């Protein structure tokens, strides 16, 4: 019988997606939930709302608060944190590369390494060289992966995932989506999403 | 020696302020923190960002999510929840009345009763009659309180509090502000804010 599953929707430019990525595996394992990693781009979703950049840039008080809150939350979780420059980073290439890993199983490791480079070491993740270093460190053939990432079929796949995000009502990141499409937004909602996924799996065990 | 203090900034129209108001007293008592209630108006702060209504109305996906999240969170906290019509409610009069109670000590009870009427019984809180019922139920002279609420000095006091909110970088509600001006935004951050307030009070016990 299949166990509970939760989709983890994240954008590599998103600060709170970083926090969620660093802790979701341990939390999901403890809850007995399988995680499906869903890298996507927030840019088109923001653009559809008339935003040309991150709301944290558009609304300065909200932005100032977020940077301070991230400092506190990163310290609480015991992960490093520095402010990327520029913010937001262009996450297109990283998202394309992460998609390639979905079929090969290395997307979680790649995602955590990219987030750690971006928010822990101030690396610019739009730089193909920075991503190649991450891939090589994971024992992968960076050149081959980059080629697959930039193939037309993979670009189209990322666009389809973006359309799926909009259909599901995703408006920010991170989001967690249960099998019944129940949506949870924000790193703060991870535990509630895991609870939902496990409760739903229990109920679906009951013959109708 | 004075114990830890936390300011609770809330707008009567704000959904998550309702949740925070219903639980802050018990949580603060357990943490040994004194709460200063700070009713204020988000409207001028939103207007300064170019918003003419709640962001939950301006951004439909965000709004749809909030209503669903409020349903879940209210159920979790065991408080009733219905969607006010119109949303947001005009919270000007309720905020003015709540200010009157600050000097007389009934602001917490009034605030909880107004939120319960608004989000539990679909009462329109811009209606003076609805607020008078709340005041009368609290054993107060509703007519006298209403007169004080609408006095010029009290109106000016609410405007000053609004200016103070902007100076403190408050951009949404609820917010919690510690004595050192550390800001926490959202019902989800209440526990962190209480932790901060108690830790700070411990440190200030140490002679410098």
Automatic annotation (TrEMBL), chains A, B:
Q: What is its EC number?
A: 5.99.1.4
What are the residue boundaries of the DSBA-like thioredoxin domain, all occurrences included? Answer: 6-192
Q: Where is the active site?
A: 14 (nucleophile)
Pfam families the record matches = DSBA (PF01323)
- Signal peptide extent: none
Q: Which domain of life is it from?
A: Bacteria
One MF term from GO for this chain? glutathione peroxidase activity
* Swiss-Prot/TrEMBL GO biological process terms: glutathione metabolic process; naphthalene catabolic process
Keyword GTP-binding on entry = no
Q: Which UniProt keywords apply?
A: Isomerase
Catalysed reaction(s)? Answer: 2-hydroxychromene-2-carboxylate = (3E)-4-(2-hydroxyphenyl)-2-oxobut-3-enoate
UniProt similarity note: Belongs to the GST superfamily. NadH family.
* Name this polypeptide is given: 2-hydroxychromene-2-carboxylate isomerase
């Amino acid at each position: 019988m299949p166990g509970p599953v939760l989709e983890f929707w994240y954008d590599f430019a998103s600060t709170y997606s970083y926090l969620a990525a660093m802790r979701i595996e341990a939390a999901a394992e403890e809850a007995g939930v399988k995680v499906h990693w869903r890298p996507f781009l927030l840019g088109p979703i923001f653009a559809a709302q008339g935003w040309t950049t991150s709301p944290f840039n558009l609304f300065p008080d909200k932005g100032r608060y977020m940077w301070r809150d991230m400092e506190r939350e990163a310290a609480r979780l015991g992960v490093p944190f520095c402010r990327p420059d520029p913010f937001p980073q262009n996450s297109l290439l990283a998202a394309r590369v992460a998609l390639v890993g979905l079929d090969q199983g290395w997307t979680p490791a790649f995602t955590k390494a990219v987030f750690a480079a971006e928010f822990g070491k101030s690396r610019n993740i739009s730089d193909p060289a920075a991503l190649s270093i991450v891939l090589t460190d994971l024992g992968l053939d960076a050149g081959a992966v980059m080629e697959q990432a930039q193939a037309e079929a993979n670009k189209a796949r990322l666009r389809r995932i973006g359309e799926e995000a909009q259909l599901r009502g995703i408006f920010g990141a991170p989001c967690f989506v249960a099998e019944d499409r129940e949506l949870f937004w924000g790193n703060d909602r991870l535990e509630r999403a895991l609870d939902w996924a496990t409760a739903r799996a229990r109920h679906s065990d009951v013959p109708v």
